[in-house]
Amino acid sequence: MLDKINKLLEEIKGLSASSAEEAEQLRIKYLSKKGIIPQLFQEFKDVPNDQKKSVGQAINQLKAAAQETINNLKEQFEESQLTSGATDLTLPGTFMPVGSRHPLSIIRKQIVDIFGRIGFTVAEGPEIEDDWHVFEALNFPPEHPARDMQDTFFITQDPDILLRTHTSSVQIRVMEQQKPPVRAIFPGRVFRNEAISARAHCIFHQVEGLYIDEDVSFADLRQTLLYFAKEMFGQETRIRLRPSYFPFTEPSAEMDISCTLCGGEGCNICKHTGWVEILGCGMVDPAVLSNCEIDPDKYTGFAFGMGIERIAMLKYQINDIRLFFENDVRFLEQFRAES
Ligand code: PHE
């Protein structure tokens, strides 16, 4: 019997098949219920007791060898089937590049987060506005140049419907609806009829801030903006306020920060002055409060407005504003690391 088993073992080692069907035939021949190997188990009954151990082991080995050989033969055909069209679920997936946030979205989120930490909520207003919210209620005199077609995109005239030229319109919308205290910022897109260049674009983004309550002072304005500048550009940042003019704030100022590149030494970015301008601000003009039916004898407040592009250009040292709008992937993917 051992001889027979050894011969079969040799036979099995030499098996080959040229198709899946042939391999299946071999399985039937050797391993199915009536196949050769199960048959051996039948014959095993008649093996004398003293040989049972060695013969039993040999049969088990034979069975294992047959199973392995025949399985291998079968697998070989399963694989070749896959290459001819079926999906192989074990193949690595197609690489999908991870997208990135737009740099303006990153900066807007940082601004919103910084003011959020000192209690400013977020509000938004419409991009298509009327003359009242963009100019009239903000104290612009009728002949002010900003009302000119040269600067403003009008949609209709009489009534004047236009694309807002600044987010200060949202100040009016908020104060019309909400009585003090108001402490909020308004991010959004604004439109100006300007020639597109490396420094200016006809569409850009602003964040407006507004704080109205009893006893709000210029010192509160200054301290709030100093906090913002340090959080945004680093704790070593200094600010300076220069007198300026806006129809809706009195007094008005423009705020500079110490140059982010040279730290105040003087370089190309700051045109060798050590300072770069980043926003306009001031105490809300009492006439504006009155226009929104807020009592200017009881309440005071401050407002500020900054361009998101300008902040982003400073932070990332981008020297052409048009890059933000072209959506060239080679530009955008440089901001991948940020969340
Ligand atoms: N709206 C002004 C601008 O677009 C900025 C500003 C906002 C100034 C609020 C003062 C107060 O230039």
SSE blueprint and pairings:
Layout: H1 2-13, H2 20-31, H3 36-44, H4 49-83, H5 103-116, E1 121-122, E2 128-130, H6 131-134, E3 154-156, E4 161-163, H7 168-177, E5 182-191, E6 203-213, H8 218-233, E7 239-246, E8 249-258, E9 275-284, H9 286-291, E10 300-307, H10 308-316, H11 323-326, H12 329-332
Parallel strand pairs: 1-5
Antiparallel strand pairs: 2-4, 3-4, 5-6, 6-10, 7-8, 8-9, 9-10
Helix pairs in contact: 1-4, 2-4, 3-4, 5-10
Structural description of this entry:
The chain has 339 residues and is of the alpha+beta class. The protein has two domains: 2-83; 103-338, Bira Bifunctional Protein, Domain 2 (BirA Bifunctional Protein, domain 2, 2-Layer Sandwich). Helices cover 40% and strands 20% of the residues. The chain contains twelve helices and ten strands. Strands 1-5-6-10-9-8-7 form a seven-stranded mixed β-sheet, with helices on both faces. It has a three-stranded antiparallel β-sheet with strand order 2-4-3. Helix 1 (2-13) runs parallel beside helix 4. The chain binds phenylalanine.
Strand content: 15-25%
* Helical content class: 25-40%
Compounds present? phenylalanine
Chain-averaged pLDDT = 91
Ends apart, CA distance between termini: 74 Å
The Cα radius of gyration reads 40 Å
Q: How is the largest sheet built, in terms of strand order?
A: 1-5-6-10-9-8-7
Provide the CATH architecture of the largest domain: 2-Layer Sandwich
Low-confidence stretches: none
- Please describe the biggest sheet, giving its number of strands, its sense, and whether it closes into a barrel: 7 strands, mixed
Morphology = rod-shaped
Number of H- or I-type helical stretches: 12
CATH superfamily of the largest domain: Bira Bifunctional Protein, Domain 2
